[in-house]
């Protein structure tokens, strides 16, 4: 079974957030450890030898594994509380922190002077679009805070899709709660306070 320690939050600094590859690698690793391998993690909770071996179990082919492979309710609850929700909360904390960084002014932006120079030059440019219709085209360089904000929006969308899929599998295997993953995570957060 996956351990919650494998999804420990990195040191949250603006430098971490602006290193988009590092941020994406953290999110990808956390998702692969818990969400992408949710079936294997849940299978690890199943203890078939609890009641001992039943020779009659081999007399007939078992095609309905769901009904035969019920996972212990306590094991499921512990997995959700100690591994799944902890991992989700860690990723949420990282995304929320980096979203805050993306909306804050960035005094250390290495391309700030270049963008300001280009902006001043473009304001002075006189364009006669009748002579050259392509001369008005300008592609300003995106600030790294804008790039980070876009990345955070995309990662939050991915996070929602992955959590919905994971939660449906957890409900299927653990006997389901009829709440959504958002409600279940909010309930877990309230219990943690």
TrEMBL record:
InterPro entries: MIX23, MIX23_fungal. Coiled coil: none annotated. Pfam families: MIX23 (PF09774). One of its GO terms (cellular component) is mitochondrial intermembrane space. It comes from the Eukaryota. PANTHER family: COILED-COIL DOMAIN-CONTAINING PROTEIN 58, PROTEIN MIX23. Belongs to the MIX23 family. This is Caffeine-induced death protein Cid2.
């Amino acid at each position: 079974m996956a351990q919650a320690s494998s999804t420990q939050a990195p040191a949250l600094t603006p430098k971490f957030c602006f290193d988009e590859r590092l941020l994406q690698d953290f999110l990808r690793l956390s998702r692969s450890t818990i969400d992408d391998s949710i079936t294997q993690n849940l299978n690890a909770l199943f203890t078939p030898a609890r009641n001992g071996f039943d020779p009659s179990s081999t007399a007939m082919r078992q095609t309905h594994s769901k009904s035969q492979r019920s996972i212990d309710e306590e094991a499921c609850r512990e997995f959700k509380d100690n591994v799944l929700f902890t991992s989700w909360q860690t990723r949420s904390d990282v995304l929320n922190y980096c979203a805050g960084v993306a909306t804050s002014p960035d005094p250390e932006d290495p391309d700030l002077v270049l963008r300001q120079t280009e902006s001043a030059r473009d304001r002075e440019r006189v364009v006669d679009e009748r002579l050259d219709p392509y001369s008005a085209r300008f592609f300003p360089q995106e600030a790294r805070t804008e790039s980070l904000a876009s990345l955070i929006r995309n990662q939050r969308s991915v996070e929602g899709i992955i959590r919905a899929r994971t939660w449906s599998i957890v409900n299927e295997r653990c006997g389901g709660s009829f709440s959504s993953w958002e409600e279940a995570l909010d309930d877990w957060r309230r219990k943690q306070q």
